[in-house]
Amino acid sequence: MKIREIALKLEIPKSTVHEIVHDTLGYRKVSARWVPKMLTEDHKLQRVEISQRLLQRCQQDNGDEDTTHIGVGPGGDFQANKNLFDNLITGDETWVHLNTPETKRDSITWKHPSSPVTKKFKVRGSAAKVMASVFWDAKGVILLDILPQGQCINAARYCSTLDRLKEAIRRKRHGLLRRGVVLQHDNATSHSANLTQQRLQRYGWEILPHPAHSPDLAPSYLHLFGLLKRHLGDMAFDRR
Question: GO molecular function: any one (predicted)?
Answer without folding.
Answer: nucleic acid binding
